[in-house]
Amino acid sequence: MSAAVEVLRSPEAPHEQFSSVLSHAPIALALCDGRGVVTASNPAFEQLLEIQPEHIQRPLAELMQPRDGADVERMMADLFRGTRDAFQLECPAMGAETQPLRWTVWAVQGGHGDSDCALVMVEDLSDITVAMQRLQQTERLETVGRLAGGVAHDFNNLLTGVLLYCDLLMSTIEPGHRARTYAEEIRKAGLQASGLVRQLLSVVRSNKAVPRPLSLNEIAEGMRNLLVRLIGENIELDLRLDPTLGLVKMDPVQAQQILLNLVLNARDALPQGGRIALETGNCKVQFLSGGAATASGTACLPCALFAVEDNGVGMDESVRAHLFEPFFTTKAGKGTGIGLATVHDIVSSNGGLIHVQTELHRGTRISLLLPAVPDSVPDTIEESSFHSTQDGEVLSFHTEESTP
């Protein structure tokens, strides 16, 4: 930038030098005269502010939207009087109230040492703002994780005592006695609570996942009783498990986490009761270029489908757009907003995709597509075919017959 300033000090007209030196700069730049009026700008400046070149020549304060336009005029006057070398403001541009911009203005000395023009640089802070928001979300997740870890650890210690005294109680009661049946139910509930605590600890601990080939059918069957107790008596749980389901390679605890979070989320969408269906099946993902198949064919990836469907309240597009964002919840203070975010992180880290179908008042279906272990998927099956772009966005799906 110093070379550009030296050029601006030359005897030629400043706007001519600006045009010849800075017009192709990738940074948004403009030149102001001694009155604070923009006299020249480069294409990057015009594109960022979305203003045609013929509308650029106006006072800089009019192009900006600071809290007080008089502040800009005062700082520009200080700049040309020599009492200020530069100033910087963060505010949107005219007509773009929501786009955060950083304006940096500094004086350029003329041939006699006085400041007869000023250079303006504008930076788009949108990416920085998003990065800061993600950092804040990460810090909040870390704080919640530490808190949940501490609570879960203490609760686990309490459960250990409950189970111990339950065993002592059962040892004093004759088999077949009604009181022993009650004690056995207490012990079963304690063991289920202990399993929930282990799953919670697996979320907040930094232990590295240990993926291995496993069947999602076995995960669903193994958690059936626990899920039935958690969703309540007014909700029916329907398991539709494909016996020919291929294996996936992932950590078993992570598989339990995603099933638990999806089912609990479906339960919350059924305040008056209803039905939750768990479905597995074999499918394939077709990766498309630009959203359309090419003449040479598309890349296909065999996957195991793991879907949770409910007939509850459903979602509109505004809710669906934020569905997997950390701390986003529609449960009026009852939800944490980390359940579906955890599902998204686990599925993404295992190379999978998520497809959401929902309609307000007509239910929701969330389909997880996880890469299948080679040679574990049957050669000829009736399967759902999902279309996806290279960046992982699931576009559509249809049912077709797959042949070897």
Can you walk through the features of this model?
Helix 6 packs antiparallel against helix 7 (178-204) and helix 10 packs antiparallel against helix 12. It is built from twelve helices and 14 strands. The protein is α+β, with helices and mostly antiparallel strands and 404 residues long. The strands form three sheets. Strands 7, 9, 10, 11, 12, 13 and 14 form a seven-stranded mixed β-sheet that branches. It has a five-stranded antiparallel β-sheet with strand order 2-1-5-4-3, with helices on both faces. Strands 6-8 form a two-stranded antiparallel sheet.
Quick recap of the structure?
The chain is of the alpha+beta class and 404 residues long. The protein has 12 helices and 14 strands. A hairpin with a 5-residue loop joins β4 and β5.
- In the predicted model, the low-confidence regions spanning at least 5 consecutive residues are 1-13, 289-297, 389-404
Query: How far apart are the first and last residues' alpha carbons, in Å?
Result: 62 Å
Question: Structural class given helices, strands, pairing?
Answer: alpha+beta
- Please report the total strand number as a whole number: 14
Largest sheet: 7 strands, mixed
Using the CA coordinates, give the radius of gyration: 31 Å
Counting DSSP H or I runs of 4 or more residues, the number of helices is: 12
Element-by-element helix/strand order = HHEEHHHEEEHHEHHEEHEEHHEEEE
Rounded mean pLDDT score: 76
Strand content: 25-35%
| Bulk shape | elongated
As a percent range, the share of helical residues equals 25-40%
